Amino acid sequence: MRTIGAMNLAQVAACFALVYNSITPAAFWSVNNFLMTGPKAFLTYSSSVAAGAESGIDECKHQFTWDRWNCPESALQLSTHNGLRSATRETSFVHAISSAGVMYTLTRNCSMGDFDNCGCDESRSGEAGGRGWVWGGCSDNVEFGERISKQFVDALETGQDSRAAMNLHNNEAGRRAVRETMKRSCKCHGVSGSCSIQTCWLQLADFREIGNFLKVKHEQAAKIDLEKRRMRGGNSADNRAAIADAFRAVPRTELVYLEDSPDYCVRNATLGLQGTEGRECLQSGKNLSQWERRSCRRLCGECGLRPEERDSETISSCNCKFHWCCTVKCEQCKQIVTKHYCSRRERNRPFNNKRKHRAQNW
Q1: Cross-strand pairs, 306
Q2: Residue 49, phi then psi, degrees to nearest 5
Q3: Whole-prediction pTM value?
Q4: Is domain 280-343 in CATH 3.30.2460.20, yes or no?
Q5: β-pairing, 305-323 with 327-344?
Q6: Cβ-based neighbour number of residue 70 at 10 Å
Q7: Which three-class secondary structure state does DSSP give residue 329?
Q8: What distance in Å separates the CA atoms of residue 362 and residue 351, rounded to the nearest whole number?
Q9: Per-domain residue ranges of the chain
Q10: Which residues does 304 contact at the CB level (< 8 Å), separation at least 6?
């Protein structure tokens, strides 16, 4: 079977671009029609790449559900040649979480034996890991997941400008997040359960933990100010070297961006932004986080809007009973549900539209 490394770079880029851009519900599985005509290696990993990209999208939407920017469809285009030329803090998260999702899924499926050419990582099996424990078991094969995902995802960036450099940097930060959140699991061995020695292996964390990890990185993202550096026009060798030096100064584990974010409070059709008017927010409820409890202030109040209370009626099955034999009959119960949505104020009132981020310029 041909390996990914033997593929033409343009083929890999076209493959992943189609995989990622076909995630929308109406066209998600159309990618298979394309992959059937491509190299056999595409077929081997295509479903994992597609599933990984989809998990990245889902996690992005979860992480930003109660933010002004809520991971809209307009932001979910990875390749720069398909229109995503913004270089904001949010763009950095999209690249990182998508790259992490692809690596995560490839790694997991490899360890589960879904691919003929890989399985558990047993490279350190039998080695002493620390006091009272040795490496063993079935560690998740992140080496494989990282290598294959990098060739799929990074192949999208064919340019050599600052935006391509930014995307590649954030792709790598996403992959490193998968590594940094891995957990050590152990099994005890010994007479009568004494646990005199343990066998341990590395496992992937839950993908939600990776999303949480990258959300913090998003808040702490570093802005690279290329205007402060000597840059020449065009795509000269000197210019490329200056770009590389600028990004090299930031650790590969950190997210980077080039442009300040637009005002997500207001609608901007050109940028594909819907604004926060009409968005739902939370004012009460059980087990709400502090971030969720402040969503009405963030989405409405700080955007010059007010939370409007709306009641809606829901009908659901209830009081279900089993009848002999053998049916279940339920009543239809009505319930009034109160929700809050951001609406225009009756009068213009001053408001404070500040974004708080722990960032530093490089």
Answers
A1: 343
A2: -65, -45
A3: 0.79
A4: yes
A5: antiparallel
A6: 18
A7: strand
A8: 31
A9: 4-120+142-180+207-257, 280-343
A10: 265, 345, 348, 349, 351, 353
